[in-house]
Design goal:
The chain is mainly alpha-helical. The chain contains eight helices and no strands. It is elongated and about 75 Å long. The protein starts with a helix and ends in a 7-residue tail after the last helix.
């Protein structure tokens, strides 16, 4: 990377856009699970604004996903704490016991939600990321040349042995092996960013 500030700015801009496209929908889904629809989008947008403002101090490495989910979680927690304060204030101001009970019940539900969706204590983030990974894998498989794709799918998705594939397609065993080699090589190249390569 060049030391030129203009080049660094353009590189960050590209990285930022890539991160936004890659994570926005999943983070919005995550925030919606924590907050409901009302403030989820604001929270996610605030996180990306914070990312932009802190671009000089944030390392854009492997940990960026964890940073984004934790930032959404923390901001959602702040929103819920604010809601709790507002609800408590409104409950005190209301005379009706039913209204107090309703406000208290709402706070308990919010606390349970926060516990369930905490990034360190459940598999929600992993499931979101696994869906994303599965989508990228399917897209990479679909980009394979037709014969390689067919051989790969028969082997990995239908659990067929190379000999069975050769018999099914009416080709030599060596041809199947060559297609598998090429398919795996292409997938390794296309998915290198997921493998840390």
């Amino acid at each position: 990377m060049s030391g030129n500030p203009k080049d660094m700015e353009e590189n960050f801009d590209l990285t930022y856009r890539t991160l936004f496209h890659k994570y926005y929908a999943n983070l919005l889904f995550y925030a919606t699970r924590l907050l409901g629809d009302e403030e989820a989008e604001d929270v996610v947008q605030d996180v990306f604004v914070e990312l932009w403002w802190r671009k000089d101090s944030i390392e854009m490495g492997e940990q960026i996903s964890a940073f984004l989910y934790r930032a959404v979680y923390t901001r959602a927690l702040n929103v819920l704490k604010h809601r709790e304060i507002v609800n408590d204030y409104e409950a005190v101001m209301l005379e009706s016991t039913d209204q107090n009970l309703l406000a208290f019940s709402s706070v308990k539900v919010q606390k349970k939600r926060i516990e369930y969706y905490h990034p360190n204590s459940n598999d929600v983030v992993k499931r979101i990321e696994n869906d994303e990974l599965r989508q990228e894998l399917h897209e990479a498989i679909d980009k394979l040349p037709e014969r390689c794709r067919t051989v790969f799918k028969l082997s990995y998705l239908h659990d067929m042995k190379n000999k069975e594939i050769a018999d099914t397609l009416g080709v030599f065993l060596r041809t199947v092996e060559a297609h598998m080699y090429k398919a795996l090589k292409c997938l390794r190249e296309n998915l290198a960013h997921l493998l840390g390569g």
